Amino acid sequence: MNNLSLKWKFIFTSVLAIACIQIVGGFYDYYKWKQELQTALDNKGKQTATNLAKMGAISIAEFDLPNLEKLVKDAGATDQEILYSAYFDSEGNKIVESGILPAGSHDSADFRGDIYSPSDSEKKIGFVQVDFTTKPYRQKLFYSLTTTVVQTLLVFLILGFLTYGLFYKLIDSRLSVIVKGISEIAKGNFDVRLAETPPDELGSLGGSVNKMAGDLQGLLAMVENKNIELKDINSSLEQKVEERTATIKVILNNVKSGFFLMDQSYQILDGYTKSCTDLFSGSIETGKNIGELLGLSQRSFEHFKACYGQVFDDILPEAVAISQAPQRFEFKQTVLKIEGSVVRDQARTVKNILFTVTDITELQRIEKEHALSQCIIKILKLRDSFVSFIKDSRSALFDLRSLVKNQDHSKIRMILHTLKGNSATFGLVETANLIHHLEDQPSWTLLDVDAIEFSFKKFLSDHQNVLNVSFDPKNSGQDTVTLDFEAVTKLQSAVEKADDSESAAAILRKWSHEIRQKSARELLGPLEELVNSLKLRLGKQVTLNIKNPSIKMDPDVMVPVMRNLTHLIRNSMDHGIENPLERKDKPLEGNITISFFDLADHWEILFSDDGRGIDADKITEKAIQAGLLTVEQAAQLTREEKLYLILKENISTAASVSDLSGRGSGMAALANSIHEAGGQLKIRSEANQGCQFHISIPKHFEVRLPEETNYRKASKQQAA
Length: 720
Fold this sequence. Notes:
Blueprint: H1 4-58, H2 65-74, E1 82-89, E2 94-99, E3 108-116, E4 124-133, H3 135-186, H4 201-254, E5 258-262, H5 274-279, H6 290-294, H7 298-313, H8 318-323, E6 328-331, E7 334-344, E8 350-359, H9 361-381, H10 383-406, H11 409-425, H12 429-439, H13 446-462, H14 464-467, H15 485-496, H16 501-515, E9 518-519, H17 520-524, H18 527-538, E10 542-547, E11 552-553, H19 555-576, E12 590-598, E13 602-609, H20 616-625, H21 631-635, H22 639-643, H23 666-676, E14 680-686, E15 690-698, H24 710-719
Parallel strand pairs: 10-12
Antiparallel strand pairs: 1-2, 1-4, 3-4, 5-8, 6-7, 7-8, 9-11, 12-13, 13-15, 14-15
């Protein structure tokens, strides 16, 4: 039997069987003793009671205590065995008794015997009661039980010693040897060899340990050799790392681009490259606020923090969040491009922003030259619109001078915002930037208006040879009208048929009014170019659709309204149309549509987009913050009424102020131009579906000649 577990199972089963036999045998003997003692007690008690009954039947009438005690002794029981005895008549009356009746004792047993008449064996004349002590019997029974228990314990003790001896011999002693051997192997003594016989489980374990020791000895020898090789490799690697680190340092210290880290508190971290010191003219230092480093205004820094706050929040995709942040900054005499990228920790949360800084002063100069060329080409293509824009701008500056004197801040901001938007639309970047900076001022002077006028004049003067447009009304480009021969023929025929000179004059005035009208396309300006430039800047995909652009409109009435449509375009592009990754189940490409309608007594313009829509609750919250209404008043407004709050001054849904939107002046300027034209504006918006602006402008049937426009009237009065 080489199987150790089988051996142990056999021994355990044998011991268990012997123990069970001993327990069963012991309790069987105890039960047998108990039965025998109980039978002996019963027999003696019954016999004694019967004998007493027979004896008492002979002389029951003469029965007394001495006779009872005598009868008890004659019955064969001793005084020590009988505790109590008594005779009763047939009525149950006690005749005589001897001893003391036990009261509920566990050490007694009572027996009864009936007494019958000697003359009539079936007639019961009384009975006898005898109480025997059971103490001797219980003592014998206790002795028997004690003997059985002691024998059983002795058997278990002997079996225990035998089992332990066998366990020690078969398992424990051999396991101790194996444990000691493994401990030696763990200490590195691989020469230890354990017994592999007898060929049972422990023998197999000893063989496995011996094999493991041999394998470990071989592996350690291999590891030793590898360590020697690794030391040589590490030595070579450290040298290469030092060489490459030195190379990287040389590159970083000489590369024109700089690198620095910014933490979540917008502080510069240690470790920026040497080129950053050169790019920032030595003003960069660890712990410095990035707004201070870049020389940002409070408004610009708030915009910067709003953009990178989204990056640290890590809600939007990295590319989308970072694309919304400004990248170009003017620093002293240079232009720096600062591009951010996310640095994450082991938990994949945004920890820092790594900025790459590049001097793009020369690149921006080239871009400006290219943009200027494109601007000139754009203006030449839409020269009539540009001439009209210059006239409008001249008129706006005239109005600004009056408003500055009266410090009407609300209207000043609206005019500045519209001038900025339209200047940028035609590509007058420097003029647009100048006005953008002026918008940050709390108040304005006539010098600020002069600065804007000078910017217009300088642009037109620099390109007079190409554009042939002047800011001076005397030398400005004139509007031209193209007539076909058929139109002139119809006019001649209508005049000839007139009944009188007054009718002919009316026909002539009407015809003159009609030929001065221009198409919506001409009045709009270069909106397609504006959308294309904003697409590239904002990283969005947007299509601009213009429907019915050939409809003719009165420029004197419609130009102010058409110029303010740029605010709708900018707002829609900036915070209306979503980034492609945010559009969910909508097409990736956003859509802006401007439709024109010529009705009997008015013109209609329908502007719509498929962006995120206008957040009515957000507008209301901004209006409350601006003090335009109270919380109680806001609670009384319907959702449609809340939408119209966007037309109020200083109300915007943009997250921050930029050169595109966020000041809350553009929509107010649009509403004001519609109001001055006697028109109406209706707004509709659905969340995530987009919004619509429905503009209705009445037609003016009275004829106003060009020289009688507001500006020209004011010019004449000023000249006078």
